[in-house]
Specification:
With 431 residues, the chain is an alpha/beta fold. It contains 14 helices and 18 strands. It folds into two domains: 3-113, no CATH class; 118-417, Aldolase class I (TIM Barrel). The strands form five sheets. Strands 8-9-12-13-14-15-16 form a seven-stranded mixed beta sheet. A hairpin with a 2-residue loop joins strand 6 and strand 7. It is globular, with a radius of gyration of 22 Å. Bound molecules: iron/sulfur cluster.
């Protein structure tokens, strides 16, 4: 039986598009030279691909770029990985999108790749490449990280030495040279106006074609200072009409109420304070900074306050699915991990806080390949359970906040989008 047939038989609550997305996320696709050709115009993967022995070089090179994101005929977006034993191939095909996915030679659907975005190659008025302003784009979502350095990496101690309380999975928050052109200084709340000016110029480009603008940044030890930094960004964007143009989300750490209210006043519409892992013991192990500096209870209370301020359809918390099963002190039983993840949904979803699970990837092999910690079946069982909770409490994912055109590794918007009228009886569903 093919993988897709098995998933269809087993996961009857999962829409076909989400089954395909999950299958491709886990199984990847086999290499085909047309993928290397497509990398000329597609949004590129940050890791180039080593051609396997026996495969002819591409334009004389064995290390080649690959597209990063697939976009199928029904607008499902999927992160692309190349795996030699996958049942899936993507080849050029006569259809309006130009390519098709095949499983073991059987046609599945038309597809294409997310293109590289022309705005990222433009310069701001002061000559800065727009891609170096802290702004990046995946599908419909612009992500603005104007202050990437996270203070949890360098927490001062009485001995004078700093302590690293960063989250175990986090590589992107390490304070480094990215902070220099952005003018970020650790322990200082304000960002230079020149940084915000460049970002606003990039966000103002009509060709972003994005709907969501997600503000993120490294955490600060002082929650109020962190909130003030986001308020500064939001006001700057609001004065230039950008909080009207985009659905703006504050993706900070947990914040005090006063800063959330100021963000709301500035036109920010959603909040996303990531708990990363639900189980209290694992939260303390995986996120020592969040645990010691804010505290799990305070973090959850802040999410509940956010639902009160921004609205019950406008708050999310992201989870790194599988991190609780990885490393020293991890849970040993996947069933316990599944129960805990479902418990997160049982607590948060009725309170107007959406749980969103992305996959924790372990780096493997000499070419630094990546494999998810969760199995495909675990991921689908978890997603079916959370989908059931969203239905039970009549709280579908708000597509203005987070949609299937920006979720390339999460399935929640794909479940809730499925245009079957019985699923959300008390909500008008727009396809
Ligand atoms: S708080 Fe965010 S940026 Fe800081 S270590 Fe954790 S995940 Fe990374």
């Amino acid at each position: 039986m093919s993988l897709l047939d098995r998933l269809a038989e087993t996961y009857t609550q999962t829409p076909a598009s989400a089954r395909l997305k999950a299958a491709v996320l886990f199984a990847g696709v086999r290499y085909h030279p047309s993928l290397a050709e497509a990398a000329d115009w597609a949004f590129p993967n940050y890791m180039p691909f080593h051609l396997p022995p026996g495969e002819p070089a591409h334009r004389g090179a064995r290390l080649v770029n690959m597209p990063y994101l697939l976009r199928t005929a029904d607008d499902t977006q999927v992160r692309l990985r190349i795996k030699p034993d996958s049942p899936f191939t993507i080849v050029p095909h006569e259809n309006p999108l130009g390519y098709a996915i095949f499983e073991d030679g059987r046609y599945v659907t038309a597809t294409t790749f997310e293109p590289r975005l022309p705005w990222a190659d433009q310069l701001t008025a002061d000559g800065t490449p727009m891609r170096a302003t802290g702004l990046s784009q995946h599908g419909d979502m612009l992500v603005l990280n104007a202050a990437p350095g996270c203070e949890y990496f360098v927490v001062p101690t009485e001995s004078g030495k700093s302590q690293n309380l960063s989250c175990t999975f986090c590589l992107y928050g390490l304070p480094d040279k990215r902070m220099v052109p952005l003018g970020q200084e650790l322990f200082k709340r304000e960002l230079p106006e020149s940084t915000l000016q460049r970002v606003a110029e990039a966000c103002s480009r009509p060709d972003t074609h994005a709907r969501h603008l997600y503000l993120v940044g490294g955490s600060m030890l002082d929650m109020a200072a962190e909130g003030d930094r986001f308020v500064q960004m939001a006001r700057f964007l609001a004065e230039r009409g950008l909080t009207d143009r985009y659905y703006v989300t504050c993706g900070s750490g947990a914040l005090p109420r006063a800063q959330m209210e100021a963000l709301k006043d500035a036109g920010v519409r959603g909040a996303c304070f990531n708990l990363e892992v639900w189980d209290p013991v694992q939260f303390a192990r995986v996120c020592p900074g969040k645990d010691k500096i804010v505290g799990r209870d305070r973090w959850i209370a802040s999410l509940e306050e956010a639902a009160d301020i921004f609205g019950a359809q406008d708050v999310m918390s992201a989870f790194v699915g599988g991190v609780e099963l990885d490393g020293l002190g991890a849970m040993s039983d996947p069933e316990q991990a599944l129960d805990s993840a479902i418990e997160a949904g049982e607590y948060l979803i009725p309170r107007g806080i959406q749980t969103v699970y992305s996959l924790h990837w372990k780096v493997t092999g000499k070419h630094r390949g990546e494999e998810p910690v969760y199995s495909l079946d675990f991921f689908l069982r978890l997603n079916e359970a959370l989908y059931g909770l969203r239905q039970k409490h009549q709280r579908p994912i708000n597509e203005e906040h987070f949609c299937r055109r920006c979720a390339y590794m999460q399935l929640e918007p794909d479940y809730d989008h499925a245009p079957e009228p019985t699923l959300w009886p008390r909500h008008e569903h727009t396809a």
